[in-house]
Design goal:
The complex is a heterodimer. By secondary structure, chain A is of the alpha/beta class. Chain A is built from 8 helices and 10 strands. The chains are: A alpha/beta, B mainly alpha.
């Protein structure tokens, strides 16, 4: 089943053309690597797909709803309930403990503190970082912090996880651990993953790849 | 472009395995396959022809006959000369491959010269490389430490190829101008 479909995306920042007619299709439960050189537009594509950035033209559909014509409130609601995000760094709230960070999206959706923290604890254990539950992000290692971020992305039971260079700040071993746990958890819960990476060994955790070059995407599978 | 890995010296590997004590040919084959064979187990013929060469060169000696599971019962032991040979092999670095003969580079140039799409050549190869990397990544996830290290060796080499593919894709227009000069 197609979850996300983007067509003819164009996005410019001043005179820089980040996307120039890019498209992509994401089906339920698949892990898709978005690859390409630095500056090719892959992160911009992810941001447009996730409804974070509005494209200048082109459309993004999530199931039968068009993200690109939604108002900001509806798009925020969709992001909070259906999507999860993992970035390279800087995504956890430094003043909160890791447990509170993971519980945060549930609390924002109105869940009681006790229930939210119970769910957060389960996800921290699943990502093998329950030992840092009471620590603040600054007190954890890079690898632990990313696993906490993955737990937070998954805690709401999203249908799509957007991961932008999730291992970019980690060494090989920690990066692979994060990728293994992220893709295993996503496959177990049936979430699709849109994984932006320039690292082939990270892309190897995907089911297929889409290549972005000069703002245009080439969906290798669908092109055949 | 194929990932070129130095081929294992079977003679040295068998000698190394014999350092733990005398074994018969079938047992040696099993030990080799388990540790180093991966997808390429030894043929019996290779084992016995290698042992016969090692015997001729005085690196192993016959050490009696033993009842075993396989067809060969003759046991072999490593000699002092064999131990010295293993030591020399272990302390000699493998020659780093120069990687200067590159089929894919030739394909890219020939595609450009003939007006075909070099990017298509590069993308097709990228897809094949990533496919193999996916298989190795899955195998690594299900394997023990030995599997992980062996797969990592292959993954790092394939990754190096992919980085080259990416770099070449980024410079293909420039290369097109140069090859047509």
């Amino acid at each position: 089943m197609t979850l996300l479909r983007a067509e003819g995306l164009v996005k410019s920042f001043g005179k820089t053309h980040a996307l120039d007619g890019a498209g992509i299709t994401i089906r339920a439960g698949e892990v898709v690597a978005v690859m390409g050189p630095s500056g090719s537009g892959k992160s911009t594509l992810l941001h447009c797909l996730a409804g974070i950035l509005p494209p200048d033209s082109g459309t993004v559909h999530y199931r039968d709803r068009e993200l690109t014509s939604m108002n900001d409130g509806d798009r925020s609601e969709l992001r909070r309930t259906e999507f999860g995000f993992v970035f390279q760094f800087g995504q956890l709230v430094p003043e909160l403990t890791c447990l509170e960070n993971v519980a945060l999206p549930l609390r924002l959706s109105g869940m009681k503190r006790k229930d939210a923290e119970r769910a957060a604890n389960e996800w921290l254990a699943r990502l093998e970082v329950d030992g840092v539950a009471d620590q603040r992000p600054g007190e954890t290692s890079g690898g632990q912090g990313q696993r906490v971020a993955v737990a937070r992305a998954l805690v709401t039971g999203p249908k799509v996880i957007f991961a932008d260079e999730p291992t970019g700040a980690l060494d090989s071993l920690n990066g692979e651990r994060v990728m293994h746990l992220l893709t295993t958890a996503a496959r177990e819960t049936g979430a699709a993953v849109v994984l932006v990476t320039h690292e082939p060994r990270v892309a190897a955790y995907s089911d297929r790849e889409v290549v972005v070059r000069d703002g245009r995407s080439r969906d290798v599978e669908f092109a055949r | 472009m194929v990932c070129i890995v130095p081929l294992m010296s079977i003679g040295h590997a068998l000698l190394g395995l014999l350092e733990g004590g005398p074994r018969h040919g079938y047992d040696l084959k099993r030990a080799y396959d388990e540790r180093f064979g991966q997808d390429r187990p030894l043929h019996y013929g290779q084992v016995y022809s290698t042992l016969s060469r090692l015997l001729k060169n005085g690196l192993v000696t016959e050490a009696g006959v033993e009842a075993g599971d396989g067809p060969e019962r003759k046991r072999y032991a490593i000699t002092d000369a064999g131990v010295t040979d293993v030591e020399r092999w272990l302390s000699t670095p493998e020659k780093p491959e120069p990687y200067l003969q590159n089929t894919l580079y030739a394909k890219v140039v020939l595609a450009l010269l003939s007006g075909r799409s070099a990017v298509e050549v590069l993308d097709t190869q990228r897809s094949a490389h990533l496919g193999t990397m996916r298989e190795l990544t899955r195998r690594k996830a299900d394997g023990d430490l030995a599997d992980q290290l062996i797969c990592d060796f292959a993954l790092f080499h394939l990754e190096a190829d992919l980085r080259w593919l990416e770099l070449t894709a980024a410079r293909v227009d420039q290369l097109a101008v140069e090859v047509k000069r």
